[in-house]
Amino acid sequence: MNSAQKSIAEGILFTDQYQLTMAQLYYRAGLHEKPAQFDYFYRRNPDYGGHQAGYGVSAGLEWLLDWMQLARFRDEDLVYLRAHRDGNGNPIFHDDFLDWLSRYGNFDGITLRAVPEGRVVHPNVPLAVVQGPLAMAQILETSLLNHLNYQTLIATKAVRIREAGRGRPMLEFGLRRGPERGVNAGARAALIGGADFSSNVGISHVLGYPPKGTHAHSMIQAFMALGGGELGAFRAYADLYPNDCLLLVDTIDTLGSGVPNAITVFEELRRKGHQPAGIRLDSGDLAHLSILAARMMDEAGFTETSIVLSNELDEQTIWQILTQIEDEASMYGVDAAAVVGRLVYGVGTRLITSEGQPALDGVYKLVAIHEDGRWVPAMKISESPAKTLNPGNKRAWRIYDHRNKAQADLLCLEDEDPRQMAQITLHHPSENHKHRTLDAGEISAIEPLLVDVLVEGREVLDRPSIDDMRALRQADVAQLDAGVKRFVNPHIYHVSLSDKLWNLKQELIRSAREDSHHR
Amino acid sequence: MNSAQKSIAEGILFTDQYQLTMAQLYYRAGLHEKPAQFDYFYRRNPDYGGHQAGYGVSAGLEWLLDWMQLARFRDEDLVYLRAHRDGNGNPIFHDDFLDWLSRYGNFDGITLRAVPEGRVVHPNVPLAVVQGPLAMAQILETSLLNHLNYQTLIATKAVRIREAGRGRPMLEFGLRRGPERGVNAGARAALIGGADFSSNVGISHVLGYPPKGTHAHSMIQAFMALGGGELGAFRAYADLYPNDCLLLVDTIDTLGSGVPNAITVFEELRRKGHQPAGIRLDSGDLAHLSILAARMMDEAGFTETSIVLSNELDEQTIWQILTQIEDEASMYGVDAAAVVGRLVYGVGTRLITSEGQPALDGVYKLVAIHEDGRWVPAMKISESPAKTLNPGNKRAWRIYDHRNKAQADLLCLEDEDPRQMAQITLHHPSENHKHRTLDAGEISAIEPLLVDVLVEGREVLDRPSIDDMRALRQADVAQLDAGVKRFVNPHIYHVSLSDKLWNLKQELIRSAREDSHHR
Prior knowledge:
TIM Barrel, seven-stranded antiparallel sheet, homodimer, alpha/beta
């Protein structure tokens, strides 16, 4: 795409055709400026095939806001829409609607509450609540889903990999096999969810983190083809980057050539007063090779050098590698904790694609329309009770118990405040028989999850830094029960409805069923 | 991101940090302008878990060319690189190298041959061959992989879904759950690989196809909340879009409410002289509902209206739906072929994410360096023989048999022309005992796969349209054996080395092993 094409493809037309045809229908029916509320939420934590997340991490909001600020129907967009033709060759979009779009086709009327980026989130709890004129709130759907679904998906994968790595540093390497321009959003989400740094130079620059990297096999190959060999390549690298000397040791033979040559070069660096950075292992049995490479470096007196692992890493492979190191290190007279303590994870494809579950099932559902001075709840029933909407203008709260662990997320109606309740009844969103009560005395804190972000298009929240988002994530993860954090078969975190919301939902289900029977 | 940030993040710095540190090393070693050749190829057809592709479809080249034309080291990029610091606080990039980048840091010296977009491709056959100054050919790696891996992945998924659908129309609906901005590239690749149209308005505009869509559940819900009901919503839609009237019928009860209401509205349209377009089914048993909805529409005299299916479709679900319709239709007195003949597939998440295999394992490997007037082959041995490089400056050919079916892709050295050979020996790339010979008489045609695209940065190939690419894809798929096209456990298409290339490879493996033993 050239830049004019990009401006079209990434502006207000970054949406689905049906949003525009529906918006015109609302316009024709006089509903286009009626205030509507849409909730954005996802229904299931990502399931990677045999292992499912116990929680998610919210991400993507800031880039959605950036998009919303710029996206509006410009002349070039309208010229294009004016040319759309239906099956009979007649214009699909009419002049009065296009004129309205040219004047009001922006997000200046949108009010948005959202869960801040970096927070731990759960299924069925709205991560974003949009209120605004029906037509523009409808047109927003596609781009909102696009921005929030992908970054939340990747931040969720990143926190899993982070947690699997027992606190050792994690680098994001996904640019080359990730989804084209989406990799920049993915790298950002990875930095929020768990990565310390990214290899992606441009996005690191934009986000204010130094990009990280080592070198590739091709550098060794080039020196080999020209007669310099692996040792020559290592020496050239060490001469140029004496304080960042991290050497890729698996081009020829990791233990037979790569590690010994790296040690030779590290010794030369040491004599010149430099501290070598470490080695990278990119193939073979990474656990076994880590142990033996660590031993070789220990014997040469390099006990501090890092061992960077890469090659299809994810939470399961890292978990397996750490388990193997713990099982196997002592056989080689090596302290397992010391080996683990020098590991760094380079995580690429499986993070940036959320391998095993490459999409979040986030949806954006109409839950209320403002009519005669009040919010009228909107309903959608599904054959699957879990998919039946939680209707109305709601608030979301997180309840902490006396251990300061998050106990449940509670959805209430707007006029309820669980902090004022002596006893809170928690209803399962769809299963009638599942409910329980909490006395105020069992609760240490209740906090609202949604914060005001936009009020009629105006940003009212100071934008947090990525470091702020990471701090939120770390704090929230620390307040999860260990069972919820299990990588495999986690304990299910409670997401509940208040009495009042539960009753409203049942009432709307009954009335929708009756409507449908009277048809 | 704002637009200044986007310009940084999507320009020349859309690369990995190590490309830049390696480039500086080549500069320091005086190798930066030495001509080098890199091959881009993938090693395995995507395996979606229990079912693997038998072939791929090439895509992404044109957008790579767009990127290469604009990407160069500008002042703002160099200011940033100048600020990078190593572990001791010293600059990582030195002034002389940055000055060189400011003058020569562009792709004007790159020569590129490639397999045209839309063509059927196979593992280990280079889809792109880059020749150019080592430093810039190295820096190109990340972006080239990013552009070609993702679009080739999606075009490959699209052709599978297309082939599963027995020629019925296919719409791309992936924008909302796809990978942020990557969805535009994904929609393009889908259109090359098999989709007829996309719901994505912006990218459809850019590529010159009309965007397609119906309406959402929210439209029905809005009318229900305001007292208009499903029938009111359908009527409003039909009034506004009488020649494109496609109604989503599963909001309340597909057969009890949606289809009868749709038929009511279709009858109204017919009386006004309009031809209704059809219905969309988005939940439930799509095969069963298609049969019964078709019967209801048949009985009302609407035998031509489409049935658009959506909801997590991919090649397996479509195949299963078609099988079930064939098994089940006659029980309801409906002709299965007539039901299938009105289907349209709306394919979203599973296409845009290549569900089951969300990344192509494409690599970019140094295969030769020009030295003393000739190309010196570069080698990389792997413990896995299948990963050992096919070295040197090569050509790729496709051989057709007398049935005009593609029989094998053959890699030769640059000075070989299989069209001149009386007998061609086909060597398996890594397994010594697997080889066979073809007599010229058994062959109907031999064609080169790689075409000249860039000669020292200048585009020498007229850019084909997406329609051209689709025509290539259709012709290539038609020339595949049925066994290679199986969705599950396909017959393995032969990719072979010529005698001369096989011998060179063995010689380089021997010599690399000896080097490593003499160390």
